[in-house]
Amino acid sequence: MLQKTLSWFATKLRHHRIWVVVLMVLLVAIGGYGASKSQVDNSLEVWQSADSPDWLAYQQFLKRTSIADPLIIFIPRQVEGLTLVAIRKALKALPVVSSCKSVGLETTKGTRGSLITLVPIAEANPSQLAEILKQIPPIMQGHQVDTFHLGGVWYLTKQLDSLSAKATTVLFPVVLLVVSIAVLLLCRTQALLILSCGLLSAVLLVGISGLCGVKMNMVLLALPPLTLILGMAHGIHFSIKKWQPDDTPVSLFCRVGPPCALSGITTAMGFASLLFSSYQPVRELGLWGAVGTLISLMVTFVLVPVFLKPGAYSKRLVLPAATSLFLARNRARIFVALALVLIVAGIGIGRLQKGSLILDFFTDDSVVRLNYQAIEDAGLGLTPIEIDFFQQPLFRSGLDGHLKDLALQHPEITHYLYTMTNQSKQVVSLGATMLLPNFFSSNQKVERLTILIKTISSEATLAIADEMEDFFQSRLGGSTTPYVTGSVPLYTRGQKELFSSMLQSFSVAFVAISLLIGVLLRSVKMGLIAMIPNLLPVVLVISVMGWFGIPLSVATITVASIVFGVVVDDTIHFLYGYQKQASGQTPRRRLDHVFQQVGAPIITTTLVTGTGFLAFLASPFIPLGYFGLLISLSLWMALICDLSILPILLMGENKDA
Known about the structure:
Layout lengths: L1 H14 L1 H21 L15 H13 L5 E5 L5 H12 L4 E10 L5 E9 L5 H17 L6 E3 L1 H35 L3 H21 L11 H17 L9 H24 L7 H28 L15 H7 L1 H20 L16 H11 L5 E6 L11 H10 L3 E8 L4 E5 L3 E3 L10 E8 L4 H19 L7 E2 L1 H34 L3 H24 L11 H21 L7 H28 L7 H30 L6
Antiparallel strand pairs: 1-3, 1-4, 2-3, 2-8, 5-9, 5-10, 6-7, 6-9
Helix pairs in contact: 1-9, 1-10, 2-7, 6-7, 6-19, 7-8, 7-10, 8-9, 8-10, 8-18, 8-19, 9-10, 9-16, 9-18, 11-19, 12-17, 15-16, 16-17, 16-18, 17-18, 17-20, 18-19, 18-20, 19-20
């Protein structure tokens, strides 16, 4: 039934080639238009669940206090009063600026400088904030201030968005060029078809998501390259398949179509299982991962019947005829080697660091990093942690002792800023001294405490926030509303929740995928066998991260989704080919035929995509470099697993294997 349906579908498409071309051109236009509307957004709201108690408390906190994270402008020299007033006036006149204040600063180095805090309105959108950053240099230069440094939460977020979007835009053509060269060298006459399957799929995904108003973040940015890989992988499986003497494009499509459809549907359902996560970013990854997988399958199934031509089979990539015999004779050695590798991998996973220093996302000579280094070296922390005492205001005397102990334990703390119930401010400087009046009122209680710390890793920041939360929960009594709030604690808590949610969701997805493979191939044994080569590459690449000090962050955790999609694709093609061999043959004979039929497409896919992703190492945005390197390593590990571990598992204990 399936063969007849595929044959009818392919024949109809070949009879209406002009309409297929018109459809593809139309889809490219729609995808290109949608892609032009696509935006990158790593703002705080992206990483929060709408019903999170911490997020709801923060929303109430913002509404009550009407505060927003300020932009910090540090001038490493003392600016005379009239000039400083003129700068403040010019900055205050900018659109969406709520307030602008300045203060003298005596740095920890003994020098004096000027500090300006610019607060935008709470409703300011990313484009409006970007316009503020654009206007600051001419204003400063117009007042003869040539050296200044910027910092602050939304400044850092905006630079992260800008650099990640720019790096992706610049690198995508480079990756496409490298991939194109690899396809031309390995796939000869079918290069254009293969590239079209991948590129059109990626453009459509970005276009559709853009038209739906979905903003890309560091998790979703993994999906366009995943869709590109899957589309090209499908195209390669059709184009590099060995042609039989009586094969036609339609008959080959009918022969290769079922495992491609099986792998596409299985991968899509695996991503769809992430929709059951309680964390919004993971649900979005599941939804758009499934959409991208189905798009790559749909595009391939439309292009291949129309444009597939014979003659693309490359004998250079065919595995040696004695491959299965070699594996059969060396099963024990391979399993011993695998055991040793897993021991080393286990040690590497034990060394894996969770969370990351966000400044490590930028190169050492980047403007962002130099700005932060200059400001924090002067003794001013740029990471705020807010503590809300609105329900139970405290006298300073009840806080100072604990805050003194906290400062001794955490030298990265530079300032305590008290906001009293009458809205007066009091500052305790542990770093740079702010030269401003500090009126101490003994009859006023503290309504809000802001702790400024230097930029440290997300895990260390969260540890301080949790320590403060535990202290006040015990000191003031248990409360369902958290005392510690602010954008930075929410970022770090969101990142922690992302890790736990994604790891749990992908564990469920891996098991579900393997069981689904068993159901669709009508073999429980096949499903159980599929679990091992699907899981090994993920384990191995995580161990590489541990050994080489690459932290598990929002930028690197998405590698699992890429490996997940590619490994499942290759594994299904291998198992489907194995099942289609005559059951009366020995496992080794069946594997010989599978290696001849499936080996070349799997190797070609890895060579093309693995080489292409190495181009990401040229990115000035460090997470993209790690992303490309880890995906390339994962693809090679997946290839080794599918061509060695999987065949050995299929041989089992058969003596004549």
